Amino acid sequence: MALPWGTVFLMAWIPPAPALLNILVIPEPPAQGDNVTLLVRGLPGELLAYNWYRGTNLNQAHLILSYIISTADETPGPAYTGREAVRPDGSLNLRDVVPEDSGSYILQTLNKQFQTDIAYGHLLVHEILSPPLLLANGTELVERRDTIHLLCSTPSTGDVRWFFNGEALPIGSRLGLTPDNRILVRHNVRREEAGAYQCEISNPVSVSRSDPVNLTVYYGPDRVTIIQESASQTGCTVKVELDASLTLWCVTRSCPDPEYIWSFNGRTHESTTSFVNITGMTKDKEGTYTCIAKNPITELTGSASVLVKMLVATSAMTIVPVPSKPTEGKDVILSVQGYPKDLLVYAWYRGTASEPNRLLSQLPSGNWIAGPAHTGREMGFANCSLLIQKLNLTDTGRYTLKTVTLQGKTETLDVQLQVSKQELPEVGNWVSPI
């Protein structure tokens, strides 16, 4: 629709809102030794001068620099250190900053109408950290008696973490830390807590870890036991064959290694090591052997005992010739009494028990096979007996029987065979007739 002539427009001019001053820290976060700029944003035009202050209020004693824009002249103030410079855009450069430069900074601007404006900034310079010093109340501790106290000593501020054997130490029920994490406490230390401890301090620009402190935890002896070689065991009794050898070992867990004391039937034994050798078992070596293990640091002891007995044969094998006085031309049986009931195999030898002298062997199947010395006149039986047929005088001599049981036990027994010459009947004197 057309407006009528004479219409008057009333228009109001609203001035633009003044830009807000703000200060940015470049780079962020700043580290010790960096060159830092407090960058100013939102500066209005037609300014005459800048003033920079260190602190939270406009105090002449805190003035760093005054800067005249038209002449680019700088005038240092009481807080000037020689490392500051004002840029034409009002920003403040600081060289080689140190943690002491941290704090509040104020920019004051002056315009041509002699009006002032201010902006606030904050600088936090992070230290390049040195390794902390880890202090311990002791590095040699006794299990379940002593307490670990570790102090992470450093003059620097930052977050503290703890490491054990190179891995971050988990926060557990036994890990006691002070609120600032700088003191670690573990009561009644355990053996698994022995190892290398370190603490680490960090801030946004730096991380530094201490040298390790190695803790040793002494423990034991515990679960002392005696184990044996070359013997059979029934409960706490060790059985040894006649003339056999036996080694008894004293086994325990201890740090450091314990001292060993052995006794035999209540009397101190000469061995002071972790084992005792019994050679050539006889009746007088039967008895109770006791091992006492003592930790020289924890002052704890543990002991174990075994009863050593000589193994008595349950049967005695014998060989009897039948008949007892064999003669030439007759048969003889070398009859075996008390042979092993768990017999696996046996062999007969003409002389010593060597392969060239083997007469025959009986296998587990019950069959026997001839050996190199077999003459065709020998025969074996299931009870280990040997039949020799049609004796001759050369059959006189030593015969050896060797048996092997299912458990691998070997026994050797020999017998001496004496073959007598056959006697001819007596013939009377007679005279041939003429």
UniProtKB/TrEMBL annotation:
Record-linked SMART domains: IG, IGc2
Organism, scientific name: Monodelphis domestica
Family named by the database record: Belongs to the immunoglobulin superfamily. CEA family.
Keyword tags: Glycoprotein, Immunoglobulin domain, Signal
SUPFAM superfamilies membership: Immunoglobulin
Position of the signal peptide: 1-19
Protein name in the entry: CEA cell adhesion molecule 16, tectorial membrane component
Taxonomic superkingdom: Eukaryota
Occurrences of domain Ig-like (ranges): 131-216, 221-307
InterPro entries: CEA_cell_adhesion, Ig-like_dom, Ig-like_dom_sf, Ig-like_fold, Ig_sub, Ig_sub2, Ig_V-set
UniProt KW Glycoprotein keyword: yes
